[in-house]
Amino acid sequence: MFRRRPHFGVLACILSLGVAISAWAADSSGLNQVPKLSGWVNDTAKVLTEADRERLTKMLGDYHKETHHQIVVLTIASLGDERIEAFSLRTATAWGLGYKNIDNGILVTLSMKERKMRIELGKGMERFISDSDAKAIMDTDMRPAFSKGDFYGGLRNGLLQLMDEARRFVVPAGSITSQAK
User: What is the CATH number of domain 41-172?
Assistant: First the structure.
């Protein structure tokens, strides 16, 4: 007589495969970890000198005092498998750039290995700076300097142009709460 026995080897194999697939999916999502926000300039790829970081930090800090707009720079070594659009949006959201109910933050992201850049605009800024404006700033003001290895010069040129464009967006005096988003 044939007696049916549970086949524990197959069951164990199926369970192990499920755990392995779950672990693989978590590890291979291709998503970079969002770095800790450390200030106006977050040079995790280490492409700027200390003096360059200080000059850009002062420029962006002074601009924030003048306009209440928050423009932040991030350099990363690599995107991994992630697209720069997704990484930049995820980072801007995680960092909470811009003020609540105004959404006037801008994140400028450079990925060094892939040679990609992105200007991520908060919803409040999109009425004043279009995606085509952002692309023109990258192509005209930033890319020529970057192609020569001048990351400070390209960032400075692009940031100055962004600041000029964003000045069209005046933040009403009573609309800023004491905290960002």
Answer: 3.10.310.50
